[in-house]
Amino acid sequence: MSGTLPFAPVRVVEDVAAESGAELDVDVPMSRLTTLRVGGPARAMLTCRDTDTLVAAVRALDAARVPVLILGGGSNLLVADSGVDAVVVRVAGDGVRLDDGLVVADAGAVWDDVVARSVDAGLGGLECLSGIPGSAGATPVQNVGAYGVEVASLLRRVQLLDRASGEVRWVGPDALGLGYRTSVLKHTDTAVVLAAEFAVTADGLSAPLRYRELATVLGADEGERRSAAKVREVVLGLRAGKGMVLDAADHDTWSAGSFFTNPVVPDDRLPAVLAAIAARLGEGVAVPRYPGDGGTKLSAGWLIERAGFAKGHPAPGAAARLSTKHTLALTNRGAASAADLLALAREVRDGVQDAFGVRLEPEPVTVGCRI
User: Buried (b) or exposed (e) across 327-346, using 16+ Cβ within 10 A?
Assistant: First the structure.
């Protein structure tokens, strides 16, 4: 490696790697590191296999004023075809500790491995979050949730590196501003998640079942608790049926999961939205809706389908398509570019807005591009 990167002298990055113990690689395609399998090169990447290395590398890069992109599992990232004009710091520490009703995971631990280990140890609480791709460190950033459970309900504390002060500290969930698929950590680079601690139960039973589809398959009533192992098995089956469990052979899983969040419509706008739905679909149509923070939450997938976007849209030969299993995932059919996925995302977003006056917001973080 020699010369100058677009964002820093090569010597600086090499020195950081040598002093921190991070592994330096150059010109690494981001398509290899993201579940959407698109994205141009990381011109310099530092892989940090433990927390001390991660802290040392980020502190040194920040002190040298070198731009940094923190990379976990790559499951919620859409990177431009031009690549990344920053040093990609790959979080690869994967330690997991189970102790006294707690699960403590290093940020780079594969999330589903964390869930599996907790269930195998007879611990309950995390099972509904089975099969979600990505790293443990990303779960509080996104306030990951599925099948009626959110990380916010289980999170006890998070270990952070404050990039302004260089301080490492543990903070409770109240400091994170956790909301629907968001937190104060999302879309900001002020802190790096180093580890997360979750409160679980030691009785081997699941969290109370709060998702109707899951409860129905289990033959349970909502609010009941069942074997955490059985709930995990059923959740993995349900996710696989929707193309939401990673499988290299299945292009429906070459995605970022749900691409759009379910929109929350303010109360003063809801009548107009419902009127637009009735005008398009007919009076009396049943609209899935739920209480939301600041309004009424609608189903993004339902709106996408009713706006005219079917599973597999736009066509079998397209490089980027909606999943053939459900309309909320945008998928790479094997040769898509980031530009292809962005074009499809804009088409769907604008189509829903034109049809119903609801603007869908993307869930993935974009790097070097905008939807």
Answer: bbbbbbbeebbbebbbebbe
DSSP letters for 147-177: TTEEGGGTEEEEEEEETTT--EEEE-GGGGT
Contact 297, 291 (CB under 8 A): yes
pLDDT digit string (tens) for 29-64? 999 999 999 999 999 999 999 999 999 999 999 999
Q: What is the C-alpha to C-alpha distance for residues 116 and 113, in angstroms, rounded to an integer?
A: 5
How open is the CA angle 215-216-220, to the nearest 5 degrees?
55
Give the residue numbers annotated as catalytic, written as ranges: 181, 258, 363
Give the Å distances, CA to CA, from 197 to 99, 157, 160, 173.
10, 5, 12, 10
Q: Under DSSP, is residue 218 helix (H, G, I), strand (E, B) or coil?
A: helix
What is the chain's alpha carbon radius of gyration, rounded to the nearest angstrom?
21
| Helix residue spans in the chain (DSSP H) | 10-20, 51-63, 111-120, 138-142, 212-218, 228-241, 270-281, 300-306, 338-356
One-letter amino acid of 114: V
d(CA 235, CA 129): 8
In order of 75, 179, 220, 274, 295, the CA distances from 370 in angstroms are 17, 23, 43, 29, 27
Cα(176)–Cα(182) distance, rounded to whole angstroms? Answer: 9
pTM for the predicted model, two decimal places? 0.94
For residue range 272-303, what is the model confidence (pLDDT) as tens digits? 999 999 999 999 999 999 998 899 999 999 99
What the block records as the tokens of 371 is: 């939807």
| Percent helix / strand / coil, the chain, rounded to 5 | 30, 25, 45
